[in-house]
Predict the 3D structure of the following.
Amino acid sequence: MSESPKVRVPIEPGFFTVPDDPSAPPRLLGSRCAACSEVFFPRRHVCANCLAQDTQDVELSPRGTLYTWTYVHFPLFGSKRADHAGGYGVGQIDLPEGPRVQAVLSGGPGDFRIGMEMEVELETLRENKEGQDVVIHRFRPVGLPR
Amino acid sequence: MKLENVAVLGIGMTRFGVYRDRSNLDLAREAGLAALRDAGISFKDVGEAFVGYIGAQPMTGIRAMKEFGLTGLPVTHVENASATGLVAFRDAAWAVASGRCQVAMALGFDKMTEMSMGGRGAGRGVGRDSIDSVILPAAYFSLWAMRRMHERGTKPEHFAAIAAKNWNFGAKNPFSDRQPDHEVTIEEVLASRKIAEPVTAMMSCPVDDGAACVILASQAFARRLQPGRPLVAPVVSTLQSESYARGHTFMGPVVGPPSMTRDTARQAYDESGIDPKDVSVTLVHDAFANEELEYYELLGFCREGEAEKLVEEKQTHLGGRFPFSTDGGLIARGHPGGPTGLAQIFELTRQLRGEAGPRQVANARIGLAHLVGGGSVCTISILERK
């Protein structure tokens, strides 16, 4: 018998999907330019490359490559999570569609190296007044145990 | 477009640091009155003013101007994050160059220590429970440093050497926040508190309060008023925002693409006809030491991949080929925000007048000031002693 999972809601709508199955990876929500095919994250109406006002919503690949990273030895602003008090990783991940995404990383300072494969996941920040879990996207090295 | 017929008439600033019991208006008045005194004019001679700050309420600039008197002059607020003061300088220079006024004032002030995070050592964005802006600025510049180390084999010692140089310049500048009482070493910088790999506390700028002011006038006005003083003239002042390139990150835009500095510098050199090898002294956005290393290349002082060699050969020290951050830079002199770019003009003017004392660059003739702001703009001004 399993207890029913809590409802998860994004910290802001329009940036990533929240799958019903907590073990399924979320998808970042981007835009593809109908004219020049350049892909962006987050979503935008006007193409930054060719200025066409014709972009289409796309779901981006959950996996990408770590372009650069750092580990910050300061509490994370905006997070109420105690485990960020000791520090947190930050990185830029190149997705196969083109966008370079900057995000907080899951893992310790010894877990990251440039060029490694990363996967997007959702982390619970806090519980809201309705008792739902407020979640935000993070990237974790593929294969790094939770 | 080249700036014609403009001169720096007067400069003034407060020492940067923590001023718990002084207001923005108080600091602004000290810097402005010092600049008027240095210029040798009265406030009623000022035809137009541009006021810059980041942290204060809307219209604080016009309130600050009332500290000098109510003369009816046009006042414009300027805000471009860290680049604010240097952009106010640009606007004031163009107000004179266009003939719109004969004398213009650029004033900047800020109290970073009061900016929503309660004190020194913190960063922006505290408590903002949003998808963006939750990460310390140091993290973004550290991402730059980590990539550099990966691509070029740069060592933390290179960054530490730049930081130590700037701290030691600070000791020679009475307006610098940080004035160490001993020669700061690479080892000391590396051993200081780690902020974000590989950046340490001593490689980072402090959180500062302060104000700075620059008064500009037509060259004819300056020569008439100050016949005995070397004429310092802004010859170009460029400002660009980002242009799109693959790899641009749209969230967390604190650093911006490095190409922004390269493109803005190219425009400044093209429009002025000045070559980097002619520049006597340079001030940059060295909020974190690894930035200064990147700017050696992006501003054209060496080829790509040769910045580390410039550090090892101490070419950016006093007596080197390209002295950088002679007033201590953002790392030592400090970085309150609004006044930072005007403090750069303060230092360049003193260097070009030959008034920089123990940190004087011999025969300084051309000075360059560079700032980036919010990862989204870059501005460069070049000054020349006529």
Remarks:
- The radius of gyration of chain B is 19 Å.
- Chain B touches chain A at residues 123, 125-131, 133-136, 138-140, 142-147, 150, 193-197, 199, 244, 246-252 (CB under 8 Å).
